[in-house]
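Form 7-S
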Amino acid sequence: MTAFLAIVKLTCRSAVRSHIFRLLLILLLLSIFLLPFTLLGDGTPKGEVQIFLQYSLGFVGFILCLSSVWLACSEVSSDVETAQIHMIVVKPVHRAIVLLGKYTGVVLIHLALLLIASVAVYAFLSFRLASAEMSEEDRMMLDEQVLTARALYRPVRPDFNALAQQELDRRIASAKEHGQDIFQLTGDQGRQEAFLEIRKELIATYGLVSEGDTMLWQFEGLPKDLSDDDVVFLRYTIYVNRYYTQDQNSVRGNWLFAANYTRPDDAGGEMVVSDLIALPEEDILTAAQNEVGVPIRNSYFIFDGKAEVGFLNKDTKTSELNFEEGRGPFLLIRETGFFSNYCRAVLVMTIGILSVTLLASAVAACMSLPIAIFFSAAYMLTGGLANYMVTSIPDVVDFQAEYTGTFGYKFGDLMLNLIVPLQDFFVTGHLANGELIGFPFIGALFAKDFLLRMLPVFLLGAWIYTRRELALVSKRG
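Output:
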């Protein structure tokens, strides 16, 4: 134990003396005290706070992850390259203890920096909010939409398999009635091809609302104990036709909300009645995230943990409006305060530092310093690329890009099952949008990325490190 603590102490001392580490430390200080003054939001207090949270805290996490990779590679590889490992192995200290001690030293110094930086960012934000002059409306908007922690609820996704099967059966029955040739639809291969084509059509048209039409979304699993004083928010993004087209503009429409209540029936009991309450028609900016409070008492809007929301397209200038899946509408309901959510974001960044340091230590235990840094950087870059390939490609693409999109999506998904993307540990976007960072999410992230992916890599590196050939070191000594 004494040897382990000594290695940890020496690692921390060596880190402080590193010029690269000092440079990264300067960048860390600049990200806390200078970066907030160079960022411009949308001109509103809400936008400025969101930009500050997303980039200041995010840049802190990025610098610390980068620093931990560099320092772990340097501390582990340099012992072998400078022949200092020879001075250690002749003592009764197992090489696995050496590697674990260096890992612990790197982690401790970066967690201390993370604690200092996160406290500084929070204190700076509190100072800016206390000294800022803003209207009561802007302050209320900040408290309700940013400085909070709201659980995000997604609408129930249709069962496209069941819908495609129903449509296929309907087409076969219609073809039989009209005496058409249905040979292609009766064979197993023909039915499967037709089923997949219909399913693709249903997914492609899901979310499209033509002029004068209404689309409804069902929500389940909502809290049943909300009071009427709790505000439920609706977040959505509307596009004109496809989201990647350039013809985005302002459109007209109005939202519909189901009001559920009970009333006596003819048999002397009670029956549930559901009416759609329409908000006034309004101009809505497309390709932009919109967020409004639901103007209905929760006791009416949420019934037995369920709710229903609709949208009526009244725009006469466009052919159809599009609600891309994954971009809303969502319901957001407050669960805890901002400080608790801020601490959870820092906890996720802590898991990120623990994970990337595991990776860098394992790689450095097997390779030289330049190769270890290159491999670690390539690993994180590949994870980021795979994450981009999965999140940027929609479920349904046009026919020209269908093959490329499908291949890219599947390749990216395969890589994400093997590689941990660095983006997993940056949840400042959720924090800036007032979205709850739940403990189930944090636990799953720790189990999946740290325990199941990074820890086995570290154990393998430690095993190789204990058996690494030191003949070259002996010659140097």
